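Researcher: Go.
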Amino acid sequence: MRALPELTNVSSADNLTRPEIIVTPKPDQAALMGVSAAAISQAARVATVGDFDQILAKYNVGDRQIPIRVLLKTDARTDVANLNDLKVPTKFGTSVPLAAVADITFAAGPVQINRTERSRSATVKGNIANGIAAGIAQDAVRALPAMKNLPPQVKEIVTGEQEDQAEMATGFMIAISTGIMLMYVVLVLLFKSFTHPVTILTALPLSFGGAFFLLLVTGKSMSMPALIGLIMLTGIAAKNSILLVEYAIEAIKHGMTRHDGLMDAAHKRARPILMTTVAMGAGMLPIAIGW
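Model: Structure:
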């Protein structure tokens, strides 16, 4: 990912490792010798991070009591032979070497284990280069061979800006769908017809097409200001359609033919429609060009 020109400052804290001791219990031998998993864990903890139980002695410093931690020396903690000889108590009152009930090995492990939705996760962070759309950068990452050939048990989860945009797009679709349905209900009550509202709402797809075309021509990506503009465009397009259809219906009721009524509505409603559209466009222009 660092080689992609679409991304900058790619980093991941999950590739940091540190040496660790891996203690693998032997269930069969431990059961035969009467050693519990808690006893093995206790012995391994004393060998690595030490023991500081409440019942242990404490060092008195004035009115303070400092817990005393018991642990092996540094050189002893890195010697497998010493770790193997650690005594583990049994339920019979005796003790056995740790090597008799567990396998001890040294390896390198992650500094910390992160989880997302109760599954282990590794996070790779990066910034999008200047002038690059988020969608283009995401497509470049997904085109990498490592991303195309992920193991079956590994899945990709997009976070950060891309996650915010996905949530924003989902909220936008819900808002638009809800608005159109409510608008249709209101228009049905207003015109007392189920067909006239459909005529009015057919202007909405045409307005969306123009908006997406201008985004493509200007090279702008879908963003929060663009979504706000689309919502406002929906209201403007519906209002203009209502002005035309309502006037045409009234003209037809007064004896005009359908063709003459539509032509008369287009002629007499053109000025208020243009005035409203130009005023709204001028008001949204600073936000559209990023002022």
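Model: The longest strand covers residues 17-25.
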